[in-house]
Design goal:
By secondary structure, this protein is α/β, with parallel strands linked by helices. It has 7 helices and 7 strands, in the order βαβαβαβαβαβααβ.
């Protein structure tokens, strides 16, 4: 029997890299995306051509109805949920100084990055607990956080706050679900080449050139996907509530 993995925000960028990697690992993957399936026809055909079994669900993680639809369709299609990767997230539509940050922007970012992640995790955890235990563990949950959980960016404070909250979501669910046989961990990407960072390439190119990142290159979706793959594997059975930085060593403090 194959494991079933849900990847939110799985149609592009880091999420797509994760979906592809878990699919190649042998999982059936469910891709949750705000865009319609037709928009990603070529992407999905590529998964099929690699022998990956997938199901696509359109919706937004900040919608309770869409979260319910995602879980319902996953169970209807594949019978169970064994892995949840909470990858969906947004940056502010406009970078504003902390002193000019708007409540509208804050509510949007927190609603998707934090509230959506929290309540989808709750729903999936209950499904994992209720379903028959087939594998050694009831499930794995991996949250895709960010180095911004600890690194200050005063021009996108709402994003930093949302990702700091995701880290506590990791801690809380790891604590609550350990006795249920569900492992919860977090991956914190640094500067990864995605649509989200495409508007600030000059800034990060300069920082890389200055040696701010010990591994002096942009990170890739595959870099993140490989670590997520490990955290979702049977090799991770006695480690929960932890995180790994996938940031080229950016977190290293040095004089």
């Amino acid at each position: 029997m194959k494991k079933t993995a849900i990847i939110t925000g799985g149609s592009r960028g880091i999420g797509l890299a994760i979906a592809e990697k878990l699919g190649l690992d042998g999982c059936q993957v469910v891709i949750f995306s705000t865009g319609g399936q037709e928009k990603y026809k070529e992407t999905l055909e590529n998964l099929t051509n690699q022998g990956i079994t997938w199901h696509f669900v359109q919706g937004s993680i900040d919608s309770a109805a869409d979260r319910e639809k995602l879980v319902r369709e996953t169970v209807e299609t594949f019978g169970r949920i064994d892995i949840l990767v909470n990858n969906a997230g947004v940056a502010p539509l406009q970078r504003n100084d902390l002193l000019q940050m708007t409540e509208e922007s804050y509510d949007r970012v927190m609603g998707i990055n934090t509230k959506g992640t929290l309540f989808l995790t709750q729903m999936v955890a209950n499904q994992m607990i209720a379903q028959e235990k087939v594998f050694d563990l009831k499930g794995h949950i991996v949250n895709v956080g960010s180095c911004s959980a600890e690194v200050s960016s005063v021009s996108r404070g709402e994003y930093c706050i949302s990702k700091a909250a995701v880290s506590m979501i990791t801690t809380l669910f790891a604590d609550r679900l350990a006795a249920e046989g569900i492992i919860v961990n977090e991956v914190r990407p640094g500067v990864i080449a995605t649509d989200m960072t495409s508007t600030v390439t000059g800034k990060y190119d300069a920082l890389i050139a200055q040696g701010v990142f010990p591994i002096a290159r942009w990170g890739t979706g595959a870099d993140v996907a490989n670590m997520v793959s490990f955290f979702c594997s049977d090799q991770v059975a006695y480690t929960t509530g932890n995180y790994v930085d996938v940031d080229g060593g950016f977190h290293i403090k040095k004089l």
